[in-house]
Write the structure tokens for this entry.
Amino acid sequence: MNAHVSVSPALSTPSASAGGLLTIDLAALRANYRLLREEAGGAAVAGVVKADGYGLGARKVAWALWAEGCRSFFVALLSEALELRASLPAAAEILVLNGLSAGSEAAAAEAGVVPVLNSLEQVRAFAALGRARGKPLPAAIQLDSGMSRLGLSPGEVDALTSDAEALAGLDLVLVMSHLACADETAHPANAAQLAAFEALSEKLPSARRSLANSAGIFLGARHRFDLVRPGIALYGGSPVSGRANPMQPVVTLEARVAQLREVPAGAGIGYGFTAVSQAPKRLATIGIGYADGWPRMAASGCAAFFRGVRLPIIGRVSMDSIVLDATHPGADALAAGDLVELIGAHQSLEDVAVAAGTISYEILTSLGRRFERRVLNETAGA
Ligand SMILES: *Cc1c(COP(=O)(O)O)cnc(C)c1O
């Protein structure tokens, strides 16, 4: 074990006041980073830590990745970059995917964060600042290889290259683009975007190139270029749809039982009485609801688990509570105050996302602030 690794806080019963316990295992995150590094061949592996590290805590996540040798970190917003910059070592490269809004160039330059310039205006403004300062500013440029979201269009790339002075003032450290359909391995857009990215990036001065997110890493060597940018796979989400998930789970979510009750046959359960007991039942109400990021749609088909026994969710998800059907001999010992598992060994992040008609990204980034959070295997520095 790494000498810098500590467990914090000690494994213990969570405070009884929280409705749920979210456990984040940074050793699993680090194992996922190592697996992706292997998969990436020779490409460097960045960490995408936008949206507070997909809801898990950007600073702690970034430090855990740093300990594995990760040196490039992507966030979406300048505000996120400035926060991270204050924590990470100076040698960490922090890149801002959404680029810079007009007027924020100096703040980015002063903090030493690297904007991903997404339009001609952004390129011109940042280059002008670099010239004014008499020192080229590190910058990345994003190209739109077909997703129509962010980055320079082919026409804008031509406009840029026809002006010999346009990039003066910039130290171009990275040229990147983003794949729209990488999780669908056979999608024709993957080859089309690759070709477009190669053609467009060749028009720019040579710099490191980056195209692949988590799913893109699994498309093969040609999509990986110099640097890959995984996010969801680091956090245990499945990078490729329709395949067994090779990543280790990072998150466990447990909910506390607030109350147990016996109801007769014919009892309406929860809002709208969408469930009515067909027979006498034992119900357990847990203190987690949609305000904690548990989707209202993740009800029928989902369950909580007590010592491996499946307790189906019954009726609608409320704001702060969910009712479970605990009518099972294996749940006889269940008592108020006990914790039951909602995301973990028995029900994966992906299971919940599928039940809710969404993706693991949305589940993770929605996980609420009312949980007690326990971070395992935290790294020194964080
Ligand atoms: C969010 C994001 C990533 C990470 O994507 P994952 O699918 O989570 O791996 C990479 N690149 C860009 C441009 C992104 O916006």
Notes: The chain is about 25% helix and 25% strand. Residues 29 and 174 are 25 Å apart (CA to CA). Confidence is low (pLDDT under 50) at residues 1-12. The longest strand covers residues 251-263.
